[in-house]
Amino acid sequence: MARLFDLGLSNVELWRSEEMQLVQLMVPAESAHDTIGALGDVGLLQFKDLNAEKSAFQRTYANQVKRSDEMARKIRFFHDQVEKAGLALGIRPLPDKVYDMDELEAKLEELEAEMLEVNGNSERLMRSYSELVELQLVLEKAGSFFDQARMDAQSENLDRSYSVPEDMGAPLLESALPVSGGQVENKAGRLGFVAGLISQDKINGFERLLFRATRGNMFLRRSAVGSVKDPATGELVEKMVFVVFYAGERARQKILKICEAYGANRYPFPEDPSRQRQMHGEVTTRLRELHHTIETGDRHREGVLQQIAFNLDAWAGQVRREKAIYHTLNKLSMDTSKKVLVAEAWVPVGAKPRVVEALRQSAEASSTRVSTVLQPLVTGDQPPTYYRTDNFTYSFQAIVEAYGVARYREVNPAVYTIATFPFLFAVMFGDFGHGLLMLAFAVYLVANERKLLRQQLDEIFGMLFGGRYVILLMSIFSIFTGIIYNEFFSIPMSLFGRSAARCVIDGVPRQEVTDLRSCPELGGTVSFVRGAPPYPFGVDPVWHGTKAELPFLNSMKMKMSILLGVVHMNLGIMMSLYNNNYFKDRLSTLCEFVPQVIFLNALFGYLCIAIVYKWITGATTDLYHVMIYMFLAPGTVDEAGHLFSGQAALQVVLLLVAFVAVPWMLLPKPLILKKRHEATLRARSAYDSVDDEESRGLVAHGASTSAGHGGGHGHGDHFDFGEVSIEGHSGLDRHVNGINTFAMEIDSDIAVGRIEVHVRGLKSSQPERFAGKKRVSIVGAQVRFKKPVAAADLCIGQEMFSELTVPVWLSEALLTLAAKTLSSTTRVSARSEPRYFMNPVLAACQLINVARPGEEPGMWEAAEDARLMLPGAAGAGGAPLGADERRKWCDVPANIAGAVFSPDYVYTFHCWQHYVNLSSYELAIGPLRVDCAPVMHRSPMQITVKDVGTGAYAFSVMLWHERALYGARAGAGGIDAGKAAALGRLVNGVRGLLSRS
Amino acid sequence: MSYWIGTLCFVAVQIIVTLCINLFSKRSSKGLPHILAITSVVQCWFMWTIVYLAHKNPLVQPAGGH
């Protein structure tokens, strides 16, 4: 029993869109095409475009798409040809032979070539055929001119003595008179003629021009021949045969040119009548032959086309499919090995098994070793909205989506629309008879659904067919509303008994008067009896045709519209409540849904209640008056607007509530959202500033020693990676020990010793080192070399391992600029691997002391003295050169060409600079401050001493900046837009500086 | 009184339609047909109600003759 009344509302199809999941597919490249094809057959994946930044031409399968396009073009060409030939296209699901794509391409190519050749041949044949037809016409018409002229001349000859020739065509000169055919040429001498055809509308201009060109010294005969196919264009043109007679070679030239200009076709015309006849015969024979040939050609062409037409649809389908596959493949990203294509696609969770099955089948079919891997992805993206519709619901969903697509998992209005849309139509349409006709049509469409689905329908009918279920429901509801309106093809029915109105005579309703139309004759009036039940179903038939019909029905329908509209609006607002509950959006419920309901119902809901109240009580109150004075004079109700007692107070309350609802609806939600957003921002910035405060210290962090020093970081809430941490290593794989301070021991492939790194602004550095000085970082080193190192090759500077995110020239410019601050001899390479900018230590360091082991001074007590190493760099009297002189001297490559850092001595270096602030990663040039973090792009700043000749490191200190470590926070993957813009401005500044120096 | 009888008729129709759907529909989930049936019956009843109530105390009479 419970089952019988179970409404199953817990699970309503279409109520919400399907749950979607983002999946990643890794498709082996060799079976990618077939796999995508199989997935396309399933049709339940929406691929994300992973190459959105690439243009259509840069994509992997651009070529194949182009090929498919080309094939589609050929198929369109065939289509046109077939249509022109008036052949029917074969509607076959499968071609008689299934070609693969390459074969089909070749086949199409071949067929197109054949088609073009056949077309070309037939065109040529048609052309010569038309030419022959024209020639024949010329022979006939011009021949008749000559014949006529000849006859005229002969008769003229007889009575020439007494009459002036009137016919212009008659020869004037005696010598020109043809005594017999064939002698004209001899006698007329220079008199010649040109014969041909010209289109009729050009003939007048042609004649005028000829006349002028020859100064009237010509004679034109013409004769219309009707429509003739023009050999050049193949079109039917009204033409005329003409013969121009002229005298002299110059006139001939002129006439020929004019003929050409007017597009007149000239034809050879023998003067000799016998030759004319002979030629006529020849032409006729040739025409017959040609006709035969053309017919044969046409038959052949038709055969070819028939064969094409048979398969064309199947081919077109195949090509379309192929193009779609390559389009999809273009959305996939190719991994670097080019062996695997990676796709991301949305799939309805419910359809996943079908997708997996399709993948399995295609893997089996393609028999590749590796099958496609499908794995779910976690994403924050909004999934697409997908409804699983069927034949019935499809068109309704389409109607709703014409207005807007609901967001993912929102309530789908289409569920109610299926019932309300046709009903609202019926409210307007309502007629029993028309509804029946419509129903018959809809039933026809639905009953023949299968048959019609397979057919190609024209546009209008296709649209009607698509909406067949809409029409069906519309017609059913129209029948219902037709009964309500009591109209059958606009004629009232009495389906529910006689009218409730009675003939009232002298105030007494007379039951016995059944024909109300006779009532006025009986001296009564037709009216409803108060308190009697109204007509049970729909509009009382008595209204039909009365003067009161229109006022009554209009008033009723107007009120009905208001009631239906308000109910629909309430339904819409209720749907938003479903959404709020589903998405747990209490804010929207409280600050949107509640005030909306209040506003709508306080004003329009009240109106609806007033309408119903008025109907029930029969009050004569004017509802316009009620609504207008509710606003204009709140608190008072006059006579015309009186409905019930307490109305004034109720209206004031409703008005107030409605007024409160407006700001309630508009203000709190955006304000609260803004506040929430600010709170999130604050939380984030607080998090960032914690990073700053906690970590503004030098945290030396050696990759190999961090575990051992973990406890040494001291306070418990210390952020592990500071804003700046120093990582020292000597040699790329062997790390130095004990680097929790500025001082480090080094032991590398080529050097052993001690270094100290001081950075202004870091707690761990000794502030007195910077007192009164401009410098921002100081490096001291005291080392012995393990083997001789060429002096010119031992360099200090920076290497870059990360990928270049700025143009090579820019990085080169920046490197050069930075290197120039150390020395004028710079070794910069933005193109080597790793890229570096370095200066020879000898030229860069502000202090070099070379001493014998045991005699070396303290690191910071050392004085400039490089004489042991550079015997040439001694000043007057053998005293050591000053640091500046030594640097200048060493800047000349020839001076240090042979010098070596020998293992025999202890070397002490000091090197400082005041441009690159290592603690803030800022490059300071005058007033200009450049943030280097984006330029460095997640690689550290370094103080590296390296033998660039052999690539061996003396030591390398890496200064990590937090932002270099956490590239993600400043916009994952590199420079964000703002920084890029700042960098762009900077580039100009830097270039300016470079050119000035 | 006859208004409530009419309303009961619609209720009866609704019950019959519900039974029909549950007995004869072969769809796996019957929520959608039920919602459609309820919505349709309700709006039909609503329209009938409107017309019925409008006839209860008409302010104009068809008296004017034909």
TrEMBL record, chain A:
The keyword Transmembrane applies. It is found in: Membrane. It comes from the Eukaryota. GO terms for biological process: vacuolar acidification. Residues 736-961 form the Domain of unknown function at the cortex domain. It holds the Pfam family Duc1. Essential component of the vacuolar proton pump (V-ATPase), a multimeric enzyme that catalyzes the translocation of protons across the membranes. Required for assembly and activity of the V-ATPase. This is V-type proton ATPase subunit a.
Automatic annotation (TrEMBL), chain B:
It is a multi-pass membrane protein. Belongs to the V-ATPase e1/e2 subunit family. The chain crosses the membrane at residues 5-24, 36-54. It is found in: Membrane. One of its GO terms (molecular function) is proton-transporting ATPase activity, rotational mechanism. This is V-type proton ATPase subunit e. InterPro entries: ATPase_V0-cplx_e1/e2_su. GO terms for cellular component: proton-transporting V-type ATPase, V0 domain. Coiled coil: none annotated. Keywords: Hydrogen ion transport, Ion transport, Membrane, Transmembrane, Transmembrane helix, Transport. It comes from Raphidocelis subcapitata.
